[in-house]
UniProtKB/TrEMBL annotation:
InterPro entries (alphabetical): NRDE-2 (IPR013633)
UniProt biased composition (Basic residues): 75-97
Entry protein name: Protein NRDE2 homolog
Keywords: Nucleus
Keyword Electron transport assigned: no
GO biological process terms, semicolon-separated: negative regulation of RNA catabolic process; regulatory ncRNA-mediated heterochromatin formation
Family, per entry: Belongs to the NRDE2 family.
Region (Disordered): 1-22, 48-110
Recorded GO CC terms: catalytic step 2 spliceosome
Polar residues composition-biased segments: 48-59
Subcellular location as annotated: Nucleus
Keyword Nucleus: yes
Length: 1001
C-alpha cells in the first residue's frame, strides 16, 4: 500500500499499465476536506466528472503529458507575475506547490484548475512490500522557506524627503516601493562606473601637468603636480598612494635638490612610506651632504624622539649637541639657535631632567644676558630638605602598597630636587650634580646681542610662565603644561563664576615643579620665578624693561585670582590680610626699578587691574588711574599740541590706560561715566578724572559728534601710517604684549561708537573695513594687526551681552553673526585664547552646536577648554536637578570621553599632528578613563586604561608625566613602566629596591 491514500493503486495492476480504478475507489476525491476553495457541495458531481476526464489524460504518452504540464506551469507563472504587478496579496509557498510534490498536475489543481490527475504507474515504482519510494527529483525539495532579502518588514513612510516635508508629484508611488538593497546596489554600480571615468580624468590632468613641466620647468609646477596627486588618490590603499607621491617628489628633487618646500614634502613623505630606522638612515645621508641644513637636523631629531623604539634620552641629546655645534660653526641665524636651544631644554624638562635644563638656562643667561644669573646662586639647591625627609618618613610608615609608595616618593622628590646641586661630594644621587661639561655642548653665545630679550622670554616659557599672548610658533609637543590656560584670568570680561572650575582643572594636570598651590614645594619655585623676573627687569632698559615689569604685574594678578578661586566659596575680593603682602611686593618692585618704568602708564594700568582684582572698583583702584593721568598731564613734555605729536608712544600709553579704565567701568555698569571718560580723552584731557561721583554728567550730542570726529581723524592718520609701502613687515617681540597706536585708536573709536549709537551695526562695519585693508595673510605685520582687530570685534559683543545682562534687556544682536566672527578668528588664529573663551563659555550655545563650531579648529587649548566647559555644565546640571541619581553615568562624562578619543586617534598621516603628539591631552584622556565610577557592567576600566596608556607612550615616549600617570591609572603595569623608564633612561629619583630597604629600616 502507499503511504498516501491519493497514490493508492490497484493491487494486481501491472507496472506499466494505466490504472483503471472503480468510481468507488475515487470517492475520497469528493471529501469535504479536499474540495478546492471556491467550489460548493452542489458542484461535487462536476468535480467527479472532471476527475474522470483527468483519468483519461493518463493514457497520453509521458512526453505529451510533461509538455502539457510545463505549459500549464508557465501559464500559472505568468498569472502570478500579473498578480504581483497589480499589487495583490502575495501567496505563500505552500499555496504555490501541492503537498504531493511529485505530481505537477496536483500543483496545477491547487492554482484553481479543475483537472485533477492521479499519477500513473509509470511514475512510481512498486516494491515487494506494496509501497513505493519517490525517486524523481523535484526542485521544491531543495527550497527552504525563509525570509527573502532584505529580512525586514516593509514600512510605508509618510515622509520620503527631508524630515517634515511630504513628497509630492506623480512619481512618489514608485519611490515608495524601492527597496534599500536595490538602491544601494544601483549606487555602487554607478560609482564603479564613475570611478573609472574619474581615474581617466585624473590621468589626463596629470599628463597635462607633466607636459606643462616639460614645456616650462619650475618649482611651482612640480608643487602643483604633487598637490594634485595628494588631493586625487587613485588606489584604495593609502600606502600605494603615498609611494606614488614620494616617487614624484624624488623626481622633482633631482631637478631642484636645494629647494626647501620640496625638502619638507620629501621629509613628510618618507615617514609615511618607510619604517623609522630607514627614515633615520635617509636623513643621515642627506645631512652628510649638507651639515648646515636646519630642516634636516630638525627632522632627524623629531623622528628619533617620536619613535618608541628609537627614543633613548642620551641618544637624542647627542643629536641636539651635534646639530647645535654644526649650525653654530656654519654661523646660522640667532633665531635658529634659540629655537634649537628651546627645543632641547623642553625635551629635558619633559624627560624629567630638570637639573640639566636649569643648568643649561644658567649658562645661557649668564653668557648672553647678565652674569648675575650664573653667579648669584639662583639655579642651585642644597643637598637635603628637612621637609622632604619628614614627608618621606610619613609615606614609608603609612603601610601603603609598594607601587603607591614609589609613586608618592617619586613625585615628592621631583617637587624638591629640580635644581642642580653645586656642593662638593654627593653620594645619594649623582644625577643632581650638573657640571659645566654636561651643558657646554648645548649652549653657545649669541651673535647679535639684541636677541637676549628673546632668550629671556624663552627661559620664562621653560619655567611655565603664563604668557598672555602667543608671540612665536610652538612645536606640537611644547604645550604640555596646564599653566598655559592661566592667562584666562587676565580677561576683564570673563565669567568669574568659572574661575573655580578653571583652577581645579589646571591644578589636576599640573606637574611639579610648578608655582601652582597644588604642588608641594611650590613656594620655592614661585620665588625662583619672581627672582628671575626681577633680575631681567633690572637688566633690560626702556620698552623691554617695561614689558617685563608688565608681565610681572600680570603674574601677580594671576596669583591673586588663583587665591580667590581656591577659596571655598569663591570670593569676589581678596581679604585684606592677603592683599597687604601683594601690595608690599609690587611697591617694592616699582620702587627699585628704572625711573622710566616709574612713569610708564602701561605699568600703572596693570597695577590698577591688580588692585581691581583684589578690592574691586574701590577708591584705591580709582586713585591709581587718576594719579597716573594727573602725572601725565602735569608733564609738559608729554602734552601734545600738534598732529604729529598725537601718535607718540606716550600718547598711545594714555589711550591704553583710559581704555582699561573704561572696560572696568562697563563691568560695573557705569555706562555714562565710561562715555564721559572717552569724550574727555578725545576733547579735554585735562578733565580726565576717575574719582567716584554721586552722579555722572550726561554728555550732549554735539560734543559726542565732535569726539567721534576726533577719534575718526586719529584712526585715519594711524591707518595711513601703517599702510605705507615702507612700513615694517616684522613686529618686534615686545610689541606682541602691548597694543600699538593704530589698534588703540581703532578700539577707542569703535567702543565709543557702539556706546553712543547703542548698537553694534556701525562699529562692526568700521571693523570690517579695517580687516579688509589688512588682508595679506602672508604678511606677518598684517597677521599681527588682524589678530588684535578680531579681539576688539569680539569684545564689542561681550560689551553688548554685559549691558543686556545688567539691564535685563532682551538680546539684540544675532548669535549667528557672533559665531561667524568666531569662526573667522579661529580659522586664522586657532589658538587664540580670547576667541576660544568667548565661544566655549557662552551659555546660549548647546553642546552639539559648540562642537560644530570648534570641530574645524581643534587645538590643544580648544580641547582643554571644551573639557572645562563640559565639567562646569555637568556640575550645573547636578545642582539644578533634584532627582539626579548619583549612580547614573553623566552624559557630559561620555561627551568628554568621545571628544578626547576622537582627537587622539592616530593614523599614518598624522604622525606629526599637534593633537596626537600632545602629552597633556593623553594624560587628560587617561585620567578621564580611570575616573568612571558608574561604568556599565562588563566594561573593564583598568583594561581600557592599559590600552590607552600604551597608545599614549607610543605617541609621546619621552614624557615622564605619562609614565607617572600610568602608574596611578594602570597600577598592574608598574613593573613594565619602570622597565621602560630605565630603558629610555628617563629621570628616576627613587627605585623600589631602595624604598624597600628604607621601609624595613
Amino acid at each position: 500500500m502507499s503511504l498516501f491514500p491519493a497514490y493508492n493503486t490497484a493491487s494486481g495492476g501491472a507496472k506499466n499499465e494505466p490504472s483503471t480504478s472503480a468510481p468507488s475507489e475515487l470517492a475520497w476525491l469528493t471529501n469535504q476536506s479536499f474540495i478546492p476553495f471556491g467550489i460548493t457541495i452542489e458542484n461535487a458531481e462536476t468535480l467527479s466528472e472532471e476527475s474522470a476526464t483527468g483519468d483519461n489524460q493518463l493514457d497520453q504518452p509521458d512526453a505529451e503529458r510533461h509538455t502539457t504540464t510545463g505549459t500549464e506551469i508557465k501559464h500559472s507563472k505568468r498569472q502570478k507575475s500579473k498578480q504581483k504587478k497589480k499589487h495583490k496579496k502575495k501567496q505563500s509557498k505552500r499555496q504555490k506547490h501541492s503537498s504531493s510534490s511529485s505530481s505537477s498536475e496536483v500543483a496545477h489543481a491547487d492554482e484553481g484548475s479543475c483537472a485533477l490527475a492521479v499519477p500513473g504507474g509509470s511514475s512510481v515504482r512498486i516494491s515487494e512490500a506494496e509501497y513505493y519510494t519517490d525517486v524523481d527529483p523535484s526542485k521544491i525539495y531543495f527550497t527552504v522557506e525563509k525570509l527573502h532579502r532584505p529580512a525586514c518588514p516593509r514600512y510605508r513612510l509618510g515622509t520620503l524627503k527631508t524630515l517634515g516635508m511630504r513628497s509630492k508629484g506623480a512619481d512618489s508611488g514608485k519611490d515608495r516601493v524601492k527597496r534599500y538593497f536595490r538602491v544601494v546596489k544601483r549606487k555602487e554600480r554607478d560609482e564603479s562606473g564613475t570611478s573609472k571615468v574619474g581615474q581617466e580624468e585624473i590621468f589626463a590632468r596629470e599628463a597635462e601637468l607633466e607636459r606643462s613641466i616639460r614645456a616650462e620647468e619650475s618649482v611651482d609646477k612640480w608643487m602643483e603636480l604633487v598637490r594634485f596627486r595628494q588631493d586625487h588618490p587613485i588606489h584604495f590603499d593609502s600606502y600605494q598612494n603615498h609611494k606614488r607621491e614620494l616617487s614624484l617628489i624624488e623626481r622633482a628633487r633631482r631637478h631642484y635638490p636645494y629647494d626647501e618646500s620640496l625638502l619638507r614634502l620629501y621629509l613628510e613623505g618618507i615617514v609615511r612610506v618607510h619604517p623609522t630606522d630607514e627614515v633615520l638612515n635617509l636623513i643621515r645621508r642627506a645631512i652628510a651632504k649638507d651639515e648646515t641644513n636646519v630642516t634636516l637636523w630638525r627632522a632627524l631629531i623629531r623622528n628619533k624622539q617620536c619613535a618608541m623604539a628609537q627614543c633613548i634620552v642620551p641618544d637624542v641629546l647627542k643629536l641636539y649637541e651635534k646639530s647645535t655645534r654644526s649650525l653654530f660653526m656654519a654661523r646660522r641665524s640667532d633665531e635658529t639657535m634659540l629655537q634649537l636651544f628651546r627645543n632641547c631644554a623642553t625635551f629635558c624638562r619633559q624627560a624629567g631632567l630638570c637639573e640639566l635644563m636649569f643648568g643649561m638656562m644658567q649658562h645661557a643667561l649668564g653668557m648672553n644676558v647678565s652674569g648675575r644669573f650664573g653667579t648669584d646662586g639662583m639655579f642651585s639647591s642644597p643637598e637635603h630638605f628637612q621637609q622632604l625627609i619628614e614627608y618621606e618618613e610619613l609615606i614609608l610608615k603609612s603601610g601603603l602598597p609598594m607601587n603607591e609608595i614609589w609613586l608618592r616618593v617619586e613625585l615628592l622628590r621631583g617637587a624638591f630636587h629640580y635644581l642642580p646641586f653645586e656642593g662638593g661630594r654627593l653620594a645619594s644621587d649623582p644625577q643632581r650634580m650638573v657640571m659645566t661639561d654636561d651643558v657646554v655642548g648645548y649652549v653657545y653665545p649669541l651673535i647679535n646681542k639684541l636677541y637676549a630679550f628673546e632668550l629671556m622670554l624663552a627661559a620664562l616659557k621653560l619655567m611655565k610662565f603664563p604668557f598672555p599672548r602667543q608671540y612665536d610658533e610652538e612645536e606640537a609637543y611644547e604645550v604640555d603644561y596646564s599653566e598655559q590656560l592661566l592667562p584666562l584670568f587676565l580677561h576683564a570680561f570673563r565669567d568669574r563664576s568659572l574661575d573655580g572650575a578653571l583652577y581645579a582643572f589646571v591644578k589636576q594636570l599640573s606637574v611639579a615643579p610648578s608655582y601652582i598651590r597644588a604642588n608641594i614645594a611650590h613656594e620655592s619655585y614661585l620665588e625662583l620665578v619672581r627672582k628671575c623676573l626681577a633680575f631681567a627687569i633690572d637688566h633690560f632698559e626702556g620698552r623691554q624693561s617695561a614689558t617685563l615689569l608688565t608681565l610681572y604685574l600680570q603674574f601677580e594678578r594671576i596669583l591673586v585670582c588663583e587665591e580667590k578661586a581656591s577659596s571655598s566659596p569663591t570670593k569676589l575680593i581678596l581679604e585684606e590680610a592677603k592683599a597687604k603682602p601683594v601690595r608690599a611686593r609690587v611697591k617694592n618692585m616699582l620702587k627699585h626699578t628704572h625711573s622710566s618704568n616709574q612713569n610708564n602708564l602701561l605699568v600703572y594700568a596693570e597695577y590698577g587691574l591688580l588692585e581691581y582684582e583684589m578690592t574691586g572698583l574701590s577708591a584705591a583702584c580709582r586713585k591709581i588711574f587718576s594719579t597716573s593721568v594727573q602725572v601725565y598731564c602735569s608733564n609738559e613734555q608729554s602734552v601734545t599740541t600738534t598732529d604729529h605729536d598725537i601718535t607718540t608712544e606716550d600718547d598711545n600709553d594714555l589711550f591704553h590706560l583710559v581704555l582699561t579704565m573704561v572696560e572696568l567701568l562697563l563691568l560695573e555698569g557705569l555706562r555714562t561715566e565710561a562715555i564721559c571718560a572717552l569724550t574727555n580723552l578725545a576733547l579735554k584731557r585735562d578733565e580726565l578724572k576717575f574719582e567716584s561721583t554721586a552722579e555722572a554728567t550726561t554728555v550732549p550730542d554735539t560734543i559726542k559728534l565732535s569726539a567721534l570726529q576726533k577719534f575718526s581723524d586719529r584712526v585715519n592718520r594711524a591707518v595711513r601710517q601703517e599702510s605705507q609701502p615702507d612700513a615694517a613687515i616684522n613686529t618686534p617681540t615686545d610689541q606682541h604684549f602691548n597694543r600699538n597706536v593704530m589698534i588703540n585708536a581703532i578700539k577707542a573709536y569703535v567702543i565709543y561708537l557702539a556706546l553712543v549709537r547703542s548698537n553694534l551695526s556701525e562699529a562692526t562695519k568700521q571693523l570690517e573695513t579695517f580687516l579688509y585693508l589688512f588682508n595679506d595673510l602672508s604678511n606677518a605685520r598684517h597677521r599681527f594687526l588682524r589678530q588684535q582687530l578680531y579681539e576688539i570685534y569680539l569684545e564689542l559683543y561681550e560689551i553688548a551681552r554685559l549691558g543686556r545682562k545688567q539691564t535685563q534687556a532682551p538680546p539684540t544682536e544675532n548669535l549667528r553673526t557672533f559665531l561667524d566672527i568666531v569662526d573667522c578668528t579661529l580659522n586664522e588664529f586657532p589658538s587664540n585664547l580670547y576667541a576660544l573663551r568667548a565661544v566655549v563659555f557662552n551659555d546660549n550655545l548647546p553642546w552639539l552646536r559648540l562642537r560644530g563650531v570648534l570641530g574645524k579648529h581643534l587645538t590643544p587649548k580648544a580641547v582643554l577648554l571644551l573639557v572645562i566647559a563640559a565639567r562646569y555644565r555637568e556640575s550645573c546640571t547636578v545642582n539644578d536637578r533634584e532627582d539626579f541619581i548619583p549612580t547614573e553615568a553623566s552624559p557630559y562624562k561620555q561627551r568628554i570621553l568621545n571628544l578626547l578619543g576622537s582627537v587622539l586617534k592616530s593614523s599614518s598621516t598624522d604622525s606629526a599632528s599637534v593633537l596626537y603628539r600632545n602629552a597633556l591631552l593623553w594624560r587628560l584622556y587617561l585620567q578621564e578613563l580611570f575616573d568612571q565610577p558608574n561604568a556599565p557592567p562588563g566594561y573593564s576600566v583598568l583594561e581600557q586604561c592599559r590600552r590607552t596608556l600604551y597608545a599614549a607612550l607610543e605617541a609621546c615616549p619621552w614624557n615622564k608625566a605619562l609614565y607617572l600617570d600610568g602608574a596611578s591609572c594602570a597600577p598592574q603595569e608598574l613593573s613594565q613602566l619602570l622597565d621602560l623608564m630605565v630603558e629610555k633612561q628617563l629621570r628616576v629619583h627613587a627605585i623600589p629596591e631602595e624604598l624597600a630597604i628604607l621601609r624595613e629600616g
